[in-house]
TrEMBL record:
Residues 49-193 form the PorZ N-terminal beta-propeller domain. This is PorZ N-terminal beta-propeller domain-containing protein. Gene3D superfamilies: 2.60.40.4070, YVTN repeat-like/Quinoprotein amine dehydrogenase. Keywords: Signal. InterPro entries: PorZ_N (IPR048954), WD40/YVTN_repeat-like_dom_sf (IPR015943), WD40_repeat_dom_sf (IPR036322). It comes from the Bacteria. Residues 1-20 form the signal peptide. Pfam families: PorZ_N_b_propeller.
Length: 755
């Protein structure tokens, strides 16, 4: 196999990984945005659209829309290029990290030659892909590479190196010749033995050119002028453009996308029509005699302003999620770097996304005007789900708390009130997160109060204002957690953790007490702050810091005597030696499921699913082995009714159908899977779900002999199909006999084993 080399003249070859991972399953789903259509291709009346995090297919005749993402077969997110050959039914996806997915009727092949190749340290983002027959020319920061779609391997590469590397913005194949547009000109070369030698390339025309396409004619453009190229002659098209986003050449038309206006020319270069979609487009095409625009924020749009796309949030940026009644959710889209400040650069300036149980809603409040938003939290009033509060953490005028009201008839939010927290400057009193207590009292945490104190701000509904309580502790805060009459608040900028006791009188600040833990209580000496917290069924506080994990046993009692409280690491045995779990790792989020298992997000390390005591890792999801879009998951929420787990990140949201839901002292709907267990198809453990919180299990063969026994905790159990002697059981039918802890409830199941 020929491998791509990113050393000029092919001195060093890299390693190709293909079919290296199968990372999706029916348990995963995506909540990605499909609004930003980057490329559109036609396949016999079907439009194939590439968006930031996935592909979707729209069939005009039936209106059917289907999607393909990392949750259903792709290997990456952040798509940057795409092309499709309808004759061979082959698609090629390019990603920002330089990897490729080859999509054929036989499956999806993952190719990572470019990301892992050495010798070139610039951007490896795939800028553009153009397929011609069984070959594709791929534009990258170093120049162009030829990719063989049948062999799924790279051929020759041309490095545009003249002192420094010059990127190929786009390229296309005409016959046996490659044409590439760069910032210095239109360049060309036959695909022959001298193709990799940059000095042998011809500059057909100097200038800064960004777009190119061909078949049956060659057309290319600068940001303001489009050309037809024929036999060495470049003829400008009759229109002058503002900012050309794309050129698409088909058998009958040349379509130029100029922001929100689409210009059509025949293949002789004669102007024929203009269509405006009323918003910015990345691309456009004439399909079935009808103009379609690939928009930035509305999916595919046709001339009558009908919109076609899978439902999803407005953008992929996401930071925190709040689940509430009837399958509704609010997603905040802000963010922070270095745990606290400054806000992440988020040029699209989103607010929050709302799912009403049926469809995603994006408030029009965030789509107009000059206000700047960095929404770190959005929460619905439990007593009135239509009332939503959100925090704006931005360093600019307008930071504070906002209240909005959902208008179901308009499917939009009406602005109600802005709460200025008395900020003396744009740097002070920036709100972070919310929680409601068990009496529906609302509290906000606020960073950078007077004297740079962390602030607790209870909402005085009678006075319709937020009160300010300077805590005298730390500088920055995190989203609070309510438990046992206390607000549990990580402090990300100092080596402290706080529990705030408001004495069940939220609007009376005079008797409030702050209990603070610090390094003397057992936090790591190299910690610079606490980041996350969760309380488990035993009442223990799991506290995530930027340098590891700590447990405060019997937290509600222990925290009130902070001079004697001790936070403890989890120590696990590795090769006979004790080792601290997650030592020196930043713990972004901790979530406890209905079975008291712990989901833990580690910055850069993916998500761990731990046993209730943390001693055993049940699952470890990363972006390499699962549909997670990144290894830094900023929030995790579990729907305890269904067991579904939501993973939130700056690169989008995915869900995983967990095995634990509604765990009680009695049995639920007991399910065994896979069943039957056929060794040739499955070599893992058999899962038994729907169990009681504590379940006594005996597994017998058809003759009644006990082959396995166990005690399961947390609502499910995994059997490795081994008998009491540690050997795999023989083929046959096995009976699972189960009782709950006190024997008041029983359940049975059968497992068929085929070796």
């Amino acid at each position: 196999m020929k491998k791509l080399s990113l050393i000029s003249l092919g001195i060093l070859a890299s390693i190709s990984l293909m079919n290296a991972q199968t990372i999706s399953s029916k348990k995963w789903a995506d909540l990605f945005s499909y609004n930003n259509v980057l490329v559109m291709k036609e396949d016999n009346g079907r439009i194939i659209a590439a968006t930031e995090n996935g592909i979707f297919y729209y069939t005009a005749a039936t209106g059917e829309i289907t999607k393909l993402s990392k949750a259903s077969g792709l290997h990456e997110v952040k798509i940057s290029a795409f092309d499709y050959n309808p004759q061979t039914k082959t698609g090629l996806i390019g990603y920002q990290n330089g990897s490729l997915d080859v999509i054929t009727p036989d499956g999806i092949t993952y190719v990572v030659d470019i990301p892992i190749a050495t010798g070139y340290n610039g951007s490896k983002k795939i800028n553009h892909i153009s397929i011609s027959g069984d070959k594709a020319v791929i534009s990258v920061g170093y120049g162009v590479s030829i990719f063989d779609l049948k062999k799924k391997e790279f051929g020759d590469s041309a490095f545009f190196l003249n002192g420094v590397y010059e990127a190929s913005n786009e390229a296309t194949i005409v016959g046996n010749k490659v044409f590439s547009v760069t910032n210095s000109g239109l360049k060309s070369h036959e695909m022959n033995v001298t193709f990799p030698v940059y000095s042998t390339w011809t500059t057909e025309m100097t200038g800064t050119f960004t777009q190119i396409d061909s078949d049956p004619v060659l057309s290319f453009s600068s940001p303001t002028t489009a050309y037809i190229y024929n036999n060495g002659v470049s003829t400008p098209l009759s229109q002058t453009f503002t900012s050309v986003k794309d050129i698409v050449v088909s058998s009958n038309n040349i379509v130029v996308t100029d922001k929100n206006r689409i210009y059509t020319f025949n293949t002789n270069g004669n102007y024929t029509s203009t269509v405006s979609f009323g918003e910015e487009c990345n691309t456009a095409a004439i399909i079935g005699g009808k103009a379609y625009g690939g928009t930035v924020v509305s999916g595919i749009k046709d001339e009558s302003n009908s919109i076609y796309k899978p439902d999803g949030p407005y953008f992929n940026y996401a930071y925190k999620i709040n689940l509430f009644s009837d399958n509704q959710m609010l997603v905040s889209s802000g963010g922070r770097s270095n745990r606290f400040n400054p806000p992440l650069d988020n040029p699209k300036n989103p607010g929050f996304y709302y799912f009403n149980g049926m469809e995603w809603i994006y408030p029009s409040y965030f789509t107009g005007g000059n206000a700047v938003f960095n929404v770190l939290d959005a929460i619905a009033n439990p007593a009135d789900n239509s009332e939503v509060f959100f925090t704006n953490y931005v360093i600019a005028n307008g930071h504070g708390i906002y209240r909005m009201k959902y208008n179901a008839s308009k499917k939009d939010f009406d602005f109600v009130k802005y709460y200025d927290l008395g900020s003396p400057s744009i740097y002070d009193y920036r709100p972070v997160g919310f929680t409601f207590d068990d009496q529906n009292n609302l509290f906000a945490t606020v960073s950078f109060g007077a004297n740079t104190n962390a602030v607790v701000a209870p909402y005085d509904r009678a006075g319709d204002k937020f009160l300010i309580k300077e805590t005298g502790v730390s500088i920055a805060t995190q989203k609070p957690l309510f438990y046992e009459g206390l607000l549990w608040i990580p402090l990300p900028r100092t080596n402290n953790f706080m529990a705030y006791d408001y004495k069940n009188t939220p609007t009376n600040l005079s008797d409030d007490v702050s209990y603070v833990l610090n390094q003397s209580n057992g936090f790591s000496a190299n910690s610079n702050g606490t980041v996350s917290v969760a309380i488990d069924k035993s009442g223990d506080a799991w506290i995530g810091t930027d340098s590891g994990l700590r447990i405060l046993p019997n937290a509600a009692t222990a925290i009130k005597t902070p001079t004697s409280a001790v936070v403890e690491p989890i120590v696990i045995e590795q090769n006979g030696l004790g080792e601290e779990l997650f030592r020196d790792s930043q713990i972004l989020q901790i979530e406890v499921d209905a079975g008291d298992h712990k989901w833990v997000s580690v910055d850069g390390g993916g998500v761990y699913y731990l046993s209730s005591d943390g001693q055993r890792t049940i699952k470890h999801f990363t972006k390499e082995n699962s549909p997670l879009p990144t290894n830094s998951v900023t929030d995790i929420k579990v729907d305890r009714k269904t067991g579904k787990v939501y993973f939130v990140s700056y690169d989008g949201i995915v869900t995983y159908q967990g095995d634990v839901a509604d765990v009680t002292s009695n049995f639920g709907n007991v399910l065994v899977y896979p069943n039957p267990v056929v060794y040739s198809n499955f070599k893992g453990k058999v899962t038994i779900k729907g169990l009681a919180e504590k379940t006594n299990i005996r597994i017998t063969d058809a003759a009644g002999n006990v082959v396995h026994s166990a005690v399961a905790r947390g609502g499910y159990y995994e059997w490795d199909l081994n008998n009491l002697k540690g050997k795999r059981v023989a083929s046959g039918i096995y009976f699972v006999l189960m009782t709950n802890e006190d024997g008041s409830d029983k359940a049975t199941a059968k497992i068929a084993v085929v070796n």
